[in-house]
Amino acid sequence: MLSMTRVTIRQVAVWVLTLLGRVCSMKRCSLFKIVTILFSMGLTWVTLLLINASGVALGIRSKMNSDLMAARAARDVGDLAANEQPLVDDYLVQDNPLGFYFNEKLHGNIPIGAPFQAAPKLDHQIPLKKVLVFVGDLGSPQVIVLGQFFAHQRIEYRTTLVTGDVPTLVLSDLNVPRYVLLVFDDYASYLRLDARRRSLLDDYCKKYKVGILALTQSKRSSETEVSVEFKLKLQHGLKLKKFKLNTEVDFWRVAKRDMVWLEDLPSSDWTIFSVKHSTYRPVAFSTVDPTWRGSGTNVSKQEFGCVVALHDRGLLDGVERVILGLDLSFWLNAIIAMDAMTYLTNGRLGLPLDRLLQIDIDDMFVGHTGIRTHARDAEEMVASQNRIRHYIPNFSYFLGFSGGWFLAGTPLEQSGDRRLVELAEHFQWFNHMYRHEQPHTQNGSIFKLSLDNNTIFAEKHKIRVVKDYMVTPHHSGVYPALEMVYDEWIKRGVVCSSTEEYPSITPQWGRRGFIHRGIMVVPRQTCRLYTKTVNFEDYPGGKEQLDYSIRGGFLFNLFLSTPVMIFMTHMSNYANDRLAMYAFEKVIEFVLTWTNLRLLSPPPAEIARRYFSMYPQEINPVWTNPCDSEKHREIWPEEKSCRRLPKLIIVGPQKTGTTALLRFLEAHPSLKSSKQDPVYFEEIQFFIGKNYLNGLEWYQEHFPEPNDPRTILFEKSANYFDNELAPKRIYALLPRAKIVIIVSEPARRAYSWYHHMRSHDDPVVMNYTFFEVVSAPETAPRFLRDARNRCLKPGMYAVHLARWLQFFPQQQILLIDGDQLSKDPITVLNNLQIFAGVQPFIDYSGKLEYQEEKGFYCLTETGCLSSNKGRKYPPMDVESSRYLDKFFKDHNTNLRTLLSDINYPYPLWLAQT
Ligand SMILES: Nc1ncnc2c1ncn2[C@@H]1O[C@H](COP(=O)(O)OS(=O)(=O)O)[C@@H](OP(=O)(O)O)[C@H]1O
């Protein structure tokens, strides 16, 4: 058993030591705490055995993307920080990549392609991206289309200006390529690259077997472009009809290779290619529209005589390229692009062919008299389902019912309700709320009663309800997550749900899933049919637009690019003109006619499990602020407000005077710190580790309700500073928070940490001298290297500060000189008040006085900090001091560079080193 688990006794011993050490280093180490830790480790150990033995962790460790691991390894200095997370947390704390989809930030409304905030220059802070997209203009609609295309498929990408510097392509230390594909939004811009940049890119492509996918844009002054070097002619600005694929091309996967599209093609901006070399082979053909009087009509009109997509096999220069004669707005091009991407990356993007489909019909029986289903509609739903089963054998509509509205409509609609219930066994049913109540307007017992009533209704009408899937009206309580909903769902055996609200409803392509307290929440899609969209004329643009959506437009593209689709529709969409039945039947037929995609309809829990095994990086939620979104505020309980959230966070690092700063700020009448936590004392440590998984309500409960508009809530958790996830998570929840960082001379900080650990009898530092800890080589035992890392890593200030600057604008970050905080706290506190806009301003000279005996400033009213802050210990030995001077030299230089770059004054100790 033990060998199966891959966890050795030695690892466990190290782990025990590490955990004890870590907790002691966090806060006071009490006997009670040690007992608690040993007990919880016992539990964790059992969990670990289970996880390892059964593969419950969705095979996540084994699936963990090797690129990501390599990137992580590369961005840490040697082994430093390699052991940041306890083993069992491995899969829980993986970086959530939402930021990548939202253009480096977590904000859904920043358009893709918009330049992200001036990023610091430190290479190892930039996460691995998979596709590098060269664009002419970051704000062009073309870039949006490309961005959506990648975002839907969870392909990490980075956009960069084709005219700018070529970004770093290879992770320096490990020789790991960052990108598996280069994309150009306009092939002409690639042809026009200067020799230096072109050879840089071509060399990269050749060395790492990376291909190029290029689109074309025809809105240019010259209609014909000739590349002598590539023996290639491009003719732009054409209108085409008909489209067919080259059956001889061997990379067709999504596309049906023998497809022939006989209709007109949209756009008059097509490009066609003429080639004079065997290195090329056509990918798709078309015919120039003879009626076209536009710019390029002097080309052959011959049936399928024009090449509209080209594969350059790289015989000339070793670089493989696929070039499309337009952008991705034409759905056939999008299919070709998908197949080309798989081909050009040797499948490294891992795009699946399966599409998992569930169609929910929310609000069965709910209100809306006049637009509800009649008996004939109910029968037609069964017929529609049967027609879909022809393509997807297990398919059923999923009906979310609110029994409290049964028979609420007109007599005809009442007969519809009765017929639905008679036909109940044909469908799948899931619990909504009895009277369609929104949980955020209820208390726990009413919420429970509503679910009970719905269950009683179902039993009475012999409706079999799936137990493991539930959705609430308006997604209330699912996201933003209300613990009351999760509490009740867990009790009832719900294991999955779906929402369109995470992290926000728009953009649709940005919706993601998360797991909260074991409940898997999968993103939902809308097919643009809502409660009031009941007749064709209600659809924006009418039936013509709906048909366009099905035949290659919005709806088709969703199927093309979204491997897991849970659609939201409503009862009224199946009555009246029965738009939903029409739309789904047609789109399914269209998809299966033109693609090799496989449509499947497994049960909801299976869909959810497959979703998270496909996207394990989404397992952990990234909590956002309900009050930052109008939609979320509507489904967030009034009394919870968002006032109980901090506006100021002291993020550390440890041993720089964070406690002194906390205590001094608490002496201000307008500044209220978080409440004491029984485990973490004055630190909540929410944004790192497991506390984060307790959810937003848990965090809010740690703050007092502010009673004065001038009150500023704040918290300090000194371990945030050097944690990789903290800046992103804090930014997601508190994008306007003021961040306070204290930097003191890093060797002094390290020495203070060592003595702090000794005072807590940490078993590692008790057995090793300071020098032995800081200079532990890579060959040293793991526990010693861990101690070394925890001692030194927070002092690599530039690395961490750069990460904070990736998220927070500089004006929101205050850097305090730790030495100044010790020697002249009054000035520091006065400055901090101005920085945080504290009202009223209080001159701290009346609140603090220097205590000779302590050797530090203390509060006049309550006295000095406890004896474990400002300890007396012998001066650092010369050997360690020399060693650390050398060790931190480059880090301090990096800090100087970073601070100069952002025009920030150096702390005195830095200026003097
Ligand atoms: N006014 C005042 N009183 C006491 N101590 C002061 C004060 N100002 C700064 N310091 C320095 O704070 C160091 C402890 O840092 P932290 O509070 O950040 O430590 S911890 O991370 O919370 O454990 C502590 O480190 P040691 O001297 O090693 O104990 C002090 O140097």
From TrEMBL:
| Segments forming domain Heparan sulphate-N-deacetylase deacetylase | 354-556
Q: Name one Pfam family in it.
A: HSNSD_N
| Chief subcellular location | Golgi
Coiled-coil spans are: none
Q: In which pathway does it act?
A: Glycan metabolism; heparan sulfate biosynthesis; Glycan metabolism; heparin biosynthesis
Show the active-site residues.
655
Q: Which UniProt keywords apply?
A: Disulfide bond, Glycoprotein, Golgi apparatus, Hydrolase, Membrane, Multifunctional enzyme, Signal-anchor, Transferase, Transmembrane, Transmembrane helix
Family classification: Belongs to the sulfotransferase 1 family. NDST subfamily.
Write the protein's name. Answer: [heparan sulfate]-glucosamine N-sulfotransferase
Native source organism of the sequence: Lymnaea stagnalis (Great pond snail)
